[in-house]
Automatic annotation (TrEMBL):
CDD domains with a match to the protein in the record: SEC14 (cd00170)
Biased composition (Basic and acidic residues): 21-41
Domain of life of the native organism: Eukaryota
Gene: X975_11984
Protein source organism: Trichonephila inaurata madagascariensis
GO (cellular component) term, any one: membrane
Annotated CRAL-TRIO domain residues: 129-262
Region (Disordered): 1-41
Protein name: Retinaldehyde-binding protein 1
UniProt cross-references to InterPro entries, sorted A to Z: CRAL-TRIO_dom, CRAL-TRIO_dom_sf, CRAL/TRIO_N_dom, CRAL/TRIO_N_dom_sf
Length: 273
C-alpha cells in the first residue's frame, strides 16, 4: 500500500446519536456503561501482538513459531512455482493469508490467487489517486473506530443512509472498502483478532437499493469469502426493516459458505431495531 495511504479511522464524536439512544444508555447498569471506557480497549493501530492475542493465535489458529516458519517456506514455494503471479512475499502479507485460513497453506494460496485474479479484473486494489479516498473518509460514513472491541477485533462502521450513491458509485465504494480492509490487515493484531462490523441502514432509500443487484451481491460475497483473508467475528445491523430480515433468513443458506452459515446461525449477525 502506498505510503501516503489515508487512515480509514473515523471520528466517532461526529457520528449523530439520537436522543432516544442517549436515554437508553443512561438506563444501562454501571457494568454495561463501563464498556465505553476507552482505557479498556486496544487502539485500532496496534502494530504488535499482545499476550492475549498471542494466546488467541495459538488457541484458535494453532500458531507456533515452528508451524509459522514451516508454513511460510511452503507458501513461498507455491508462489515461486506459479507462472505470471506477481504478489508480495514478505512475512506480514503471507501471514495474513495463513492466519485467515488457520495455517492451511493450500487454502491460503488459493485465497491469494483469488485475490490476484480479482485485482487484475476489477482494479479495486490499485488506487492511482488516494485523494479521492481521503474525500470519502472525510464524509465520515465509513471507516474503523479508533478503538477495538473487547475481543481485540477492529470495528468497521458503515452508515449506509449517509452514503450518497450518486457521488460515490459502486466502483468507488468498492475501492474505499478495499482500501479499508487492506490498510487494516497490515496490522498483525487484526490478522489474528479479526473484524467486527456495525452497519447502520437507517435512511436507506431506493437509490441505495438499486445497487443491490445479483452481480454486486455476488461480488461482495466472493471478495469477502474467497479472496480477502480477514477473520470475521460479528456483524451488527442497525435499523433493518423486518421484511429485509425475513428475506435475509431465506437467502443466506444459498449464498454463504458453510462456515459463514454456521456463524450466522449462532447469532453472527445481530439485528437492532
Amino acid at each position: 500500500m502506498p505510503t501516503d495511504s489515508p487512515s480509514p479511522v473515523v471520528i466517532p464524536e461526529k457520528f449523530s446519536v439520537d436522543a432516544s439512544d442517549s436515554q437508553k444508555n443512561d438506563k444501562l447498569p454501571n457494568k454495561e456503561k463501563q464498556c465505553d471506557d476507552r482505557s479498556d480497549h486496544l487502539p485500532y493501530d496496534l502494530g504488535y501482538l499482545t499476550e492475549e492475542i498471542k494466546q488467541m493465535a495459538e488457541r484458535e489458529l494453532g500458531e507456533t513459531d515452528e508451524r509459522k516458519e514451516t508454513a511460510l517456506k511452503k507458501f513461498r514455494k507455491l508462489i515461486a512455482a506459479e507462472k505470471n503471479f506477481y504478489v508480495r512475499t514478505d512475512d506480514l502479507c503471507l501471514l495474513s493469508y495463513l492466519r485467515g485460513k488457520k495455517y492451511d497453506v493450500d487454502r491460503a494460496f488459493k485465497s491469494m490467487k483469488n485475490t490476484y485474479k480479482l485485482r487484475m479484473k476489477k482494479r479495486f486494489y490499485d488506487a492511482e489517486d488516494n485523494s479521492i479516498v481521503h474525500d470519502v473518509f472525510r464524509q465520515n460514513w465509513i471507516g474503523f473506530l479508533p478503538y477495538r472491541a473487547k475481543n481485540g477485533s477492529v470495528i468497521l462502521v458503515i452508515r449506509v443512509g449517509v452514503w450518497d450513491p450518486e457521488k460515490v458509485d459502486r466502483d468507488l465504494l468498492m475501492w474505499v472498502i478495499t482500501h479499508c480492509m487492506i490498510h487494516s490487515i497490515e496490522d498483525e493484531a487484526t490478522q489474528v483478532a479479526g473484524y467486527s462490523a456495525i452497519i447502520d441502514v437507517r435512511g436507506v432509500s431506493n437509490k441505495h437499493l438499486k445497487l443491490l443487484t445479483i452481480e454486486n451481491i455476488l461480488l461482495i460475497i466472493h471478495s469477502t469469502q474467497n479472496c480477502f483473508p480477514g477473520r470475521y467475528k460479528a456483524v451488527h445491523v442497525i435499523g433493518m426493516p423486518k421484511f429485509f430480515a425475513y428475506a435475509w433468513n431465506m437467502c443466506y443458506p444459498f449464498i454463504l459458505s458453510y462456515k459463514m452459515q454456521k456463524r450466522v446461525s449462532e447469532c453472527f449477525i445481530t439485528i437492532i431495531d
